[in-house]
Structures are given as structure tokens and as C-alpha cells.
Specification:
This protein is of the alpha+beta class and 239 residues long. It has two domains: 89 residues, Glutaredoxin; 131 residues, Glutathione S-transferase Yfyf (Class Pi), Chain A, domain 2 (Up-down Bundle), CATH 1.20.1050. Helices cover 49% and strands 10% of the residues. It has ten helices and four strands; from the N terminus they run E-H-E-H-E-E-H-H-H-H-H-H-H-H. Strand 1, helix 1 and strand 2 form a beta-alpha-beta unit. It starts with a strand and ends in a 9-residue tail after the last helix. Bound molecules: glutathione. The site of glutathione has 10 residues, from loops. The site of glutathione (GSH) has 10 residues, from loops.
């Protein structure tokens, strides 16, 4: 049986765009889906810029009014981590190993990125500097948010550098990329948007270099790269 899914995603010019084949509502971690064998994805665009996520017909699918959401033949699934695990498990992707401890390592790293890194890097450091709707109510509150994000992100980058990437593997959990790498790399490259070169983090630099030469990387990051290029010359608080 051919697997056929529909994933609702966000619209450009959001930097998380551009990752998946047509008719999946794209978001960064979806990069992995393209790699999973035997997967057919339809993409439906939810244009966050115009508030399409708040339309009644969309909220009937995902009451959170967020992307992504997966519709697998009427089985509706929200939360990107759950979606990735579902698709990887359903297609037997090696990116989500079945051996107990190997899988636990992948789950550990995914939880770390979602629970620790992402909130500080994206929501406190990067998004407030890029997106008007993340502007705080006063300049003081805005600057304090970014300073908090910078400090915390630097801390998490240290853990990523010496703990997750200090174990001698090419990728986060093994010598092959897993769901954790596909999730994590999209969160880490956000820091590049605000000027980070990871100069003090050789393990992170090496890992990014290995991720960026994987099949599908270039083709799935065109819009992302375009958005990043549009920021050239702007000054940011960086890490
Ligand atoms: N925990 C959710 C978070 C989803 C989420 O925050 N999506 C953002 C885009 S990354 C969104 O839809 N934002 C729309 C809005 O803020 O109105 C997941 O991982 O799927």
C-alpha cells in the first residue's frame, strides 16, 4: 500500500519554509520526511502571514491554530515531534532506530532541542529580532528578552558542543543522521540568521558542515537561504 499523507505547513517568507516536496505544509523538521523511503506527501499551505491558521476550517483540523498538522487518511496528528516519529515509524526509516537505547538517545536529543534550545534561541533571541509580532511592549522589555535569549542560547550551545557532539560521533546520536539531527539542525541554523558563525564551537561547525552536504539539503533550503540573504547588512545581537 502506498503511504499518502497530507501535512499542513506555513507559508513564505518565514525562514522555516522550503523544506519539503509539494503540498505538505512545510516546516523545518519536515526535511527528514523527504528522506524517508516510500513516503508520498501532499502539502497544503497555511499562510501564517495572512492569519490562515485562524480560519475556522483550519481550526477544525488543528484547534491550536498552529502548523504543522498531519492528515493521514483522516488520522489527524499535531505536534511536529509526534508527526516525525509517526512518519518515520510508519515508513521504517532508519532515522528513528528501533533498538531501545538507540531510540532513547534520539528521543533524548529531540526533547532537549524542543524543551531547552528552541525556546531560548528562537523565541527569545532570534524571532524577537526578526518578526514584528514578536516585538515586546517596551524597548526595555524587548532588549531584556533578547539578552536573556543570548545568554541561555550560549549555555545550550556549550552543552551541544561538549555533550551531544563531544561523544565522537559524526551526528548527534550515532554516525548516521537521525530525527534528532533533522530537528536540531533547523533550530541551530536559526542562530546563523542573526550572525552566529559558531567560531568557538568546532564540533557544532563540523556537524553543521556534515548536515549541509546531505542529500536534499540544498534543494530544501532555498527559501530559507533567500530569507537569510535578505538580512545581510543588518546588525543583530548574536551568539
Ligand atoms: N509544539 C508545536 C509548535 C508549533 C508552532 O509553534 N508552530 C508555529 C510555527 S513554528 C505556528 O504555527 N505559529 C503560528 C502562530 O503563531 O500564529 C509543534 O512542534 O508542532
Amino acid at each position: 500500500m502506498e503511504d499518502h499523507f497530507c501535512l499542513y505547513f506555513r507559508a513564505t517568507p518565514d525562514p522555516h519554509e522550503a523544506l519539503l516536496p509539494p503540498r505538505l505544509h512545510r516546516q523545518p523538521h519536515g526535511h527528514v520526511l523527504r528522506r524517508a523511503e516510500g513516503i508520498e506527501l501532499d502539502f497544503e499551505l497555511v499562510d501564517l502571514q495572512t492569519g490562515a491558521q485562524h480560519k475556522p476550517e483550519y481550526k477544525a483540523v488543528n484547534p491550536n491554530a498552529l502548523v504543522p498538522v498531519l492528515d493521514d487518511d483522516g488520522f489527524i496528528l499535531t505536534e511536529s515531534a509526534a508527526i516525525l516519529r509517526y512518519l518515520a515509524a510508519k515508513t521504517g526509516s532508519a532515522a528513528y532506530p528501533t533498538e531501545l537505547r538507540a531510540r532513547a538517545r534520539v528521543d533524548e536529543a529531540m526533547a532537549w532541542f524542543y524543551g531547552n534550545y528552541y525556546k531560548d534561541c528562537a523565541y527569545n533571541l532570534v524571532y524577537p529580532q526578526l518578526f514584528p509580532h514578536h516585538k515586546r511592549r517596551s524597548d526595555e522589555a524587548h532588549a531584556a528578552t533578547i539578552a536573556w535569549g543570548q545568554e541561555k542560547t550560549q549555555r545550550w550551545m556549550g552543552v551541544l558542543e561538549s555533550h551531544f557532539l563531544g561523544r565522537g560521533h559524526d551526528f548527534l546520536c550515532s554516525d548516521q543522521p537521525t530525527l534528532a539531527d533533522y530537528v536540531g539542525v533547523e533550530m541551530v541554523i536559526l542562530a546563523e540568521m542573526v550572525g552566529s558563525t559558531f567560531a568557538d564551537y568546532p564540533n557544532i561547525r563540523g556537524w553543521l558542515a556534515r548536515m549541509k552536504v546531505l542529500p536534499h539539503w540544498a534543494g530544501t533550503h532555498q527559501v530559507y537561504d533567500g530569507f537569510a540573504a535578505s538580512l545581510a547588512g543588518r546588525e543583530f545581537v548574536t551568539v
